[in-house]
Write a structure and sequence with these properties.
The protein is an alpha+beta fold. Among the domains are: about 60 residues, no CATH class; about 40 residues, no CATH class. The protein is about 40% helix and about 10% strand. The protein starts with a helix and ends in a 22-residue tail after the last strand. Bound molecules: zinc ion (2 copies). The site of one zinc ion has 7 residues, from strand 2.
Amino acid sequence: MVGVRVPLVVLIQFGMIHQRLGSTMDKNKKDSDELGMAWGTANNRLRKLVIFSLIQKCGEDNCVRCGQRIVSVDDLSIEHIKPWRGNDVDLFWSVDNIAFSHVQCNTTHRPGGAKFKMAPEGTAWCGRCQDYKSVEMFHKDRARRSGYRGFCKDCT
Ligand SMILES: [Zn+2]
Ligand SMILES: [Zn+2]
């Protein structure tokens, strides 16, 4: 009797797990259909959008490589300043080691022109006005690539 019951229990349990997995997949599939993209892709995109809106608010939305503004989330690349591979795993997790750049600037040796907008001559981007303003409107900031603060004088 025992020999028969044990496999049955296993089968029932297996069936339940299988069913649960199946329903989760169905739910994700439904979400994916509604979102028009894979669930994982949508999740990653949302996370990137949140980061992008935060760095815009902080005025940190300038490319660490070319110093120009990152205008679209599609251009945003989150990169490590010091390479962590074969170096130090802590560098991977260190927030201080994270920088934002254009996808085009991060990926070196990539053919084709840059998609991002260049700041017009004599202007800098204000992250709060969401507009280019004359450099006289900015306090200098040598720590930043652009040489100016992320916000104009009106906004600081
Ligand atoms: Zn750049
Ligand atoms: Zn401003």
